[in-house]
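Priority: medium. Attachment 1 of 2:
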């Protein structure tokens, strides 16, 4: 058991590092849990990863908020809808087959990767003439939709939140990353509530993983704030590409 904890803590450290910058730490943590602890149900492994995820993400959200201006009047209602969506997704995980949704997400990710690569100014601040009410309606919509995805499937949620803030609300990478962290905290807390009450969390693994995820998150934030938007854009492209490979593997090769 000690060996498994050490390996998972190392993975959690790198997951926290990636998550703090652009999201997508679940691309490391979830497969690692499935490989190292195959004797447990998938729901238990999924629930366990949420503890380290919420720890690192909450810390990142706090640190970003000290360096980035957050529009709390806009963000708080979106967090609530993301939380609600995640609860609905977690409930529906037994009703909807994720393998039906994954091909759609794969196509969407490929389009996003091509667009981000070709548009050099993607992720720079773009002033959008949107009223507060319009921004709120857009935010509530993608908050619930992506929150639902997090409860249902999971990997890449933070990346999708970033994309929504950039493409729909005109925020830059740094601001979008900060906002995405708070939304991701909401969806992770919703998932923890659902999985904890049904006994699907292995705390002996989750707690030490959370500590290392926190350390990784600390380093990731330092680097993101130091390097700025250009660095985050490159990192974002890498994580989206990794997400594409992950979904392609699940769809075409995993049996």
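Attachment 2 of 2:
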């Amino acid at each position: 058991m000690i060996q498994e904890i050490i390996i998972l803590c190392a993975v959690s450290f790198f997951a926290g590092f990636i998550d703090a910058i652009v999201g997508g730490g679940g691309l490391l943590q979830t497969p690692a849990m499935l490989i190292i602890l195959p004797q447990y149900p998938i729901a238990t492994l999924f629930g366990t990863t949420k503890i380290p995820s919420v720890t690192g993400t909450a810390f990142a959200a706090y640190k970003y908020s000290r360096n980035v201006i957050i529009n709390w009047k806009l963000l708080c209602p979106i967090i609530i809808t993301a939380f609600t969506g995640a609860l609905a997704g977690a409930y529906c995980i037994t009703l909807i087959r994720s393998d039906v949704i994954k091909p759609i997400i794969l196509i969407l990710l490929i389009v996003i990767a091509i667009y981000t690569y070709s548009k050099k100014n993607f992720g720079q601040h773009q002033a959008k003439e949107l009223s507060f009410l319009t921004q709120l309606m857009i935010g509530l919509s993608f908050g619930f939709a992506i929150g639902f995805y997090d409860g249902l499937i999971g990997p890449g949620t933070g990346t999708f939140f970033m994309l929504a803030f950039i493409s729909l609300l005109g925020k830059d990478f740094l601001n979008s990353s900060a906002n995405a962290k708070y939304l991701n905290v909401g969806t992770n807390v919703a998932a923890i509530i659902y999985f904890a009450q049904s006994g699907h969390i292995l705390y002996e693994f989750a707690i030490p993983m959370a500590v290392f995820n926190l350390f990784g998150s600390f380093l990731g934030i330092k680097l993101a704030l130091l390097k700025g938007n250009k660095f985050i854009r490159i990192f974002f492209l890498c994580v989206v590409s990794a997400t594409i490979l992950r979904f392609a593997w699940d769809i075409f090769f995993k049996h």
